[in-house]
Amino acid sequence: MLTGKTLFFLCVLCLTCLAATPATDINAENKVIQAALRPSSLESNLHNLTDEIGGRVPGTTAMQHAVEWGTQAFTAAGADSVHAEGFTISNSWAEGPTELTATTSYQIGDKVGGTILSVFRVRSVSVAWAPALAPAKHIPIVDVGEGTEADFQKAGDIAGKLLLVHTTVLKTWDDLFAEYAKAPPIIDLAVKGKAKAIAFMATREHDILYRHTNSGEGEIDKLPMVIVAREDGERIARLLAAGNKVWGDLSIPNQLGGPIRSSNVIAEIKGSDKPDEFVIVGAHLDSWELGTGALDNGCNAALVIDALRAIKASGVKPRRTIRFILFSGEEQGLIGSHSYAAAHRHELDKAAGVIIYDSGTGKTTGFSVGGRKDIIDTAKELISPLAQFDVKDLKPDMEWGTDHFDFMLEGVPTFVADQVEANYLENYHAISDTYDKVDFPQLKKHVAEAAALAVGLANLPEKIGPRLTHDQIEQTMRDTNSVEMLKADGIWDDWVSGKRGRQK
Ligand SMILES: [Zn+2]
User: Fold this and answer.
1) How much is the average pLDDT of 17-41?
2) 286: which of 89, 123, 328, 409 fits an S-S bond (Cβ 3.0–4.6 Å)?
3) Distance in Å, CA 6 to ligand 1 centroid
4) In what order do the strands lie in the sheet with 246-252?
5) How confident is the model at residue 112 (pLDDT cuts 50, 70, 90)?
6) pLDDT tens per residue across span 115-172
7) Which residues have a Cβ under 8 Å from the Cβ of 318 and sit 6 or more positions away?
8) What is the pTM of this model?
9) 8 A C-beta contact, residue 58 and residue 286
10) What are phi and psi of 45, to 5 degrees?
């Protein structure tokens, strides 16, 4: 039976069959892999970026230094050219010394001393791009459970109160996506009920705090919000459940400002045969600043630089140009890669694939190919030399959440490294995301994978697949059941209105 879905994929497949006779250049890929596995400045580059420069939030001096670091490291790696391209983020944001102190009252026995007040510090950080809150004393804290509508109804009047929201401990990628998805409706209910602020319990145990944003495009959020250490949050919840009243003294002196400029860093190896066609290897350079952004995503920024070094050192001359891009503004909502895709829309017909790494140093299992079943056969050949690293899977799903996204919405074939969790989630955006967490032997393998796949894509007789039209992209969204995900993240409206993605 020929369903609509099958028809769509057959059409795309035919185009591919006509265009690309899969004659993959395995020999070149193997040379690049060998070069990638040799000693390099991967470790020292990452040390410079994380231990010396530190966390890298757009708008800060550290971010500017990181852009200079990227420019110099690309040059040292042998790039044919390096330049920066600026873009704007609508607001600047920096945390001041957030402080939350809880007060509760209790009695010992019936007679001794009457009511006693107990005051304890609640370790907390502001949610990123959330508004400031002038010091406020004695705010009643109310437990709103997990923040469902029923929970809010049960909590009653929340006006002027600090809402404590329960969370579950982060263990899987699905937990992480759920954490992001749950927050916006909670914020809406809190705003509607005129709450003073929200305190989300940390999804990490052992007092680990982390930076989180619920604002999608660098806009300032609707309500002051903090993440509180899980242990402190649970203590408050137990007190409230036992009938003790708990109040908070809360101060969130965030510094907010107007639009800021940030930059992506772009290096190239010029193609020998089709220099106007290009493959992109990218990772984001920016990070949150509680830790030093080593797993997210300094290690992969260093990977991108080392992939360039490896290809140059191998002596392989790619037929198409390879662009190595360190994106910025990723953590504020993919702003750097979105800006780049929009600014380069006129040449995206020439894009021959976008490879992105953004999940720390957990072992790569394969690549997610943006819903493109039509490119899987050729991609299988291209990744065959990576079988030595156990990289085998090609998932035809459409993922959200990293810098391939706006290229995917422009119809360009994308490859996002699928990686095992390893130690990524426990350190995600956290104070503990530091250089010592990086698995360098594994990262070297990822350099080899990225460099080999880039050269494989660059050397194909014809591009791995056509740039999809608007209708084909939308059909792919439907075929991969991605519409609900896009709606939940608020991106569907932007797609439909033409604010985001390919429009013809
Ligand atoms: Zn990241």
Assistant:
1) 82
2) 328
3) 34
4) 112-121, 99-108, 246-252, 133-143, 162-165, 197-201, 225-228, 124-126
5) low
6) 889 999 999 999 999 999 999 999 999 999 999 999 999 999 999 999 999 999 999 9
7) 28, 269, 271, 272, 279, 311, 454, 455, 458, 459
8) 0.93
9) yes
10) -60, -45
Sign of the alpha-carbon dihedral angle for 261, 321, 343, 297:
negative
- Return d(Cα 177, Cα 108) in angstroms, integer: 44
- Helix, strand, coil abundance in the chain, percent, nearest 5: 40, 25, 35
**Span from the CA of 97 to the centroid of ligand 1 (angstroms):** 25
How far apart CA 496 and CA 52 sit, in angstroms, is 44
- Give 402 Cα–ligand 1 centroid separation in angstroms: 7
Quote the CA–CA distance of 279 and 353 in Å, as a whole number.
5
Helix extents (H) in 208-363: 230-241, 299-314, 335-343
What is the residue type of 464?
A: I
What pLDDT, in 10s, does the model give residues 81-105?
Answer: 999 999 999 999 999 999 999 999 9
Ligand 1 mean position, distance from CA 294 (Å):
10
What is the Å distance from ligand 1's center to 272 Cα? 32
> Helix/strand/coil (H, E, C) string of 181-234?
HHHHHHHHHHHHCCCCEEEEECCCCCCCCECCECCCCCCCCCCCEEEECHHHHH
Cβ atoms 230, 224 nearer than 8 A = no
Q: What's the 295 CA to ligand 1 centre distance in angstroms?
A: 8
Structure token pair of residue 159 = 């006006």
pLDDT in tens, 356-372: 999 999 999 999 999 99
Q: How far is the CA of 283 from the centre of ligand 1 (A)?
A: 8
Q: CA-to-CA distance for 432 and 209, rounded, in angstroms?
A: 9
With 0-12 / 13-18 / 19 or more C-beta atoms within 10 angstroms meaning exposed / middle / buried, residue 109 is exposed
State residue 310 phi and psi, 5-degree precision: -65, -40
- Cα(446) to ligand 1 centroid in Å equals 16
Please answer whether residues 443 and 435 qualify as being in contact, where contact means their C-beta atoms are separated by less than 8 angstroms: no
For 277, the 3-state DSSP assignment is: strand
Confidence (pLDDT) at 113 = 65
pLDDT the model gives residue 115: 86
Question: What token pair was written down for 142?
Answer: 């109310």
Nearest to 248 by CA among 169, 188, 160, 175: 160
Nearest alpha carbon to residue 166 among 148, 191, 150, 181: 148
Q: Which two tokens stand for residue 190?
A: 């809190």
